[in-house]
Amino acid sequence: MAATNGYLGVTPPISVNESTEREKEVTVSLMEELHRQGVFESEEEARTREIVLGRLAAIVKKFVRKVSLAHGLSEAAADAAGGKIFTFGSYRLGVHGPGSDIDTLCVVPKHVSREDFFDVFEQILKETDGVTEVSGVPEAYVPIIKIKIQGIPIDLLMARLALSSIPDDLSLQDDNLLRNLDERCIRSLNGSRVVDEILRLVPNVEVFRDSLRCIKLWAQRRAIYSNVNGFLGGVAWAMLVARICQLYPNAIAGAIVSRFFIIMYQWTWPQPVLLKQIEDGPLAVRVWNPKLYPADRSHRMPIITPAYPSMCATHNVTASTQMIMTEEFKKGSEIVDRVIVGTAEWSELFTKHDFFHKYRYYLQVIASTGSPDLQIKWSGTVESRIRQLVMKLEYVDSLILAHPFIKGFEQVSYCLNGDEVRAVAQGDISEAIAKRKKEDIEGKEGASTVYSTTFFIGLAIEPKQPGTVGPRKLDISYPTTEFTKLVKMWEKYDEATMGIVVRHIRSSTLPDYVFDEGERQPRSAQKRPKTGKGSGKSSNTSPDVPSKRRRASHAVTSDSVSTTAQLKITQNGVTPSNNSVPGLEFASSTSAVYSPAVKDPSHIKSPQLPFGENVAVATSAAVS
């Protein structure tokens, strides 16, 4: 894209120099490592995707034609009504991997309604050979139909334009296309318009894609790739990489990745990341503006979408998740610095996260129901509120941060009686239940299936001050009780069929399913010295006893699945009336945050750009 001011972006580049020979060498080794990591799809899968998209385009035209005829249009007018698909997300960006879904937008003319999309189109899809797992979610914030065609997962959105027909050469770049559209259509169009604009605003698309593949894999491995949980989603990571590409227009991937970590660590938040100046448009809609809107001023790491209407893609970031990402930027910079000088390999950058080894205390949030379809909606509702729990926990004294894990763990448990159902809903899945299969409960009176999704939040506690005597207590009853109330306010919540439990556990009692095979043993060995240290104290400090006591003390009285919050290790499932959690006590250690095996990020030197490069160039632009 030609830039009117001679460069892309809101500031001049930091450097227009070509990459050094060493940076070229490490770029070659980076691409080799990315291939080893399996981030590229095969040529066969790429061809299959193209065929699938061709089939989908034809199905969309068939759908529009059918609806047009039903509205009384002539055969000729129905044929001319058109209909077109646009891809967005990782596929459109060119950074998708094997098995990843294709985000697809179906653009239809004005006489095709959203009801037609979910009634007529969904039915056409179900009747089409090779199309499976058709599932429409019309009530979603962005209404969607999920399908698979020839095994390729596709997420389908719909946008109805104020046009009588959709030509094959339609472009979505014109802001005037947004006129007279409802908010859901504007949101649906926004994904495709943003991605197209990102690709127009980078100096070299191939360098951008190579760099983004690296950053995307790193963020996934480090468990900081999740918009809903307060980290960054795919579009936000893409915009960050695109900004670095603008600042180094002649650099190649190895150099871009190196500068990425340094600049993102040094970035002066809440200075926004902009790929171009925010523009006004033809609609009476809100555009991100911290001078006008207090909510926009509260955004901690604003990364602003480049397509009108500009929005903040990172409004979910909390104080805790910002601290975690900043720490990861610093660690990443240190590793890449060693890669460039030849003392480390790129594989070190993609080392799996240490979330389940990092903290001594965790919150466990369990959402459960008796139906697989209901569980998808209920667990999704609970997950969307986890960020609110994190933000409330951040106000608790002695808590440094609350670290949400980026995904839930799904379990299907076959229970013989109500006691087992209640235990599973509380997060206590015994070995007998875990091994039981569906056929083991068929035909047995009182038996039932429980679907549960468990989310985890790591709790980083302030180190104990010298001279402090005895165990400390942390009162987290208010945030957990408020969170439980919040999720129960969901309009479709039913106490008889949905369970929500919040309880704290020690790292030693984390369930086996959160660890990869063979991963748990080092962690257990690491914790052993502490059991001896606390052997003279109450049984609450023993890593083994709490889980046994919890299992013996659950006394929940709800009909099907527990709906009470498990807030005490030493009491039953009923929330204590005095709103305190005396059971959460901490051993007399001066370091309650990180386990000894985790490298303290404060020992890593602050990353700096090479001599002559100044990050202030990139952060000096004010919002116009």
UniProtKB/TrEMBL annotation:
Residues 9-202 form the Poly(A) polymerase nucleotidyltransferase domain. Transmembrane segments: none annotated. Residues 555-564 have a biased composition (Polar residues). Residues 354-523 form the Poly(A) polymerase RNA-binding domain. It is found in: Nucleus. Residues 207-352 form the Poly(A) polymerase central domain. Pfam families: PAP_central, PAP_NTPase, PAP_RNA-bind. It catalyses: RNA(n) + ATP = RNA(n)-3'-adenine ribonucleotide + diphosphate. Its main location: nucleus. Its EC number is 2.7.7.19. Keywords: ATP-binding, Magnesium, Metal-binding, mRNA processing, Nucleotide-binding, Nucleus, Transferase. Residues 513-564 are annotated as: Disordered. Polymerase that creates the 3'-poly(A) tail of mRNA's. Belongs to the poly(A) polymerase family. This is Poly(A) polymerase. It comes from Somion occarium.
